[in-house]
Design brief:
Number of strands: 9
Distance between the termini: 54 Å
Structural class: alpha+beta
Number of helices: 13
Strand content: 5-15%
Helix content: 40-55%
Length: about 300
């Protein structure tokens, strides 16, 4: 694991935020991830409601969840996918006592399978561990099994919202940072919050029209993309499933760019195109990350001045 998360992204390693480890999602879980991650891509500040705009993003997800968007369900599903909490782990009685005394939940069962028969306790009512465990042992036996369960859930304390992930508590500001890491780590395209939604919508419409005029081919569905990567890299579909989503997207973009470069280079050479008058295609190893997705429909200030001259 690297200290710098940007390096972790490059090598498909887990990223760190405080005590939290976030894992890159693989292609095998891409469709599940795609459904869950939608809850992190809501443009809440474009909603014409001052109360919503003033909310933190975490508060908005919790308070705005309903049967149409399932924000809360999707958030918990996403964090389970990225944080990989352990469901239930056997712990010693001493560790159970420490958890109880610190205000955390302890699961107690008479068997090693807490699914069938278990009791969850905490000291919210101020009952001491000794008294609580004495009462518990009368029902589950003298030698119970103790478990800790990594839970993920938001809660409000003293008017402030927190989210618990793996026994640690994170503020709404922490959540904003966690949100950014998840999106960057998995190569999710993000919108510019500083740009007005009406401008973004206009640019998207212009891009759609430009692509239609150019006859840009619509990408095949996800299943077919997996097959494309399998063919291009000469690997099995099982190996494709093990790729991270971030790398899978980069492979798709690079493969497409390389084919376009090779076709256009041959076509330019065959047609005897003058490279001084008409720029040759960008090399297939050129930096794709620097490309603005609206580059074909927008004009720089310098280009505008040249047009006016």
């Amino acid at each position: 694991m690297f200290i710098n998360n940007e390096i972790s992204f490059v090598y498909d390693k887990p990223a760190k935020y405080k005590d939290l480890t976030l894992y890159p999602v693989t292609v095998e879980n891409a469709m599940e991830f795609d459904y869950y991650v939608g809850c992190l891509l809501v443009d809440k500040n474009s909603i014409p409601d001052v109360n919503i705009i003033s909310m933190t993003y975490l508060d908005y997800l919790i308070k705005s969840t309903n049967e149409d968007n399932f924000y809360y369900h999707r958030l918990i599903g996403l964090l389970n996918l990225c944080a990989k909490p352990e469901e239930r782990v056997v712990i010693s009685e001493e560790e159970a006592k420490d958890r109880y005394d610190s205000g955390k939940d302890v699961l107690i069962s008479k068997t090693e399978n807490p699914e069938t028969d278990s009791i969850e306790i905490n000291n919210e009512k101020g009952i001491s561990w000794d008294k609580a465990i004495k009462l518990i042992k009368t029902s589950v036996g003298r030698n119970p099994f103790y478990f800790k369960e990594d839970k993920i859930y938001p809660f409000v304390k003293n008017g402030k919202t927190f989210i618990q992930i793996k026994d640690q508590f994170y503020t709404t500001t922490d959540f904003d940072n966690i949100k950014k890491i998840i999106l960057d780590q998995n190569g999710v395209e993000q919108f510019d919050e500083k740009q007005r939604k009406s401008i973004r919508d206009d640019l998207e419409e212009r891009r759609r029209i430009a692509n239609k005029i150019k006859g840009t081919v619509r990408f095949c569905n996800f299943e077919e993309q997996m097959i494309c990567v399998s063919i291009a890299l000469g690997i099995s579909l099982d190996e494709v499933k093990k790729l991270t989503i971030r790398k899978f997207k980069k492979y798709i973009a690079r493969i497409n760019h390389k084919i376009e470069y090779e076709i256009n280079t041959v076509a330019y050479a065959a047609a005897g195109v003058d490279g001084k008058k008409t720029p040759y295609p960008e090399h297939w190893m050129s930096d794709l990350d620097d490309k603005n997705k609206y580059s074909g429909i927008t004009m720089s200030e310098e280009d505008l001045k040249n047009k006016v001259k």
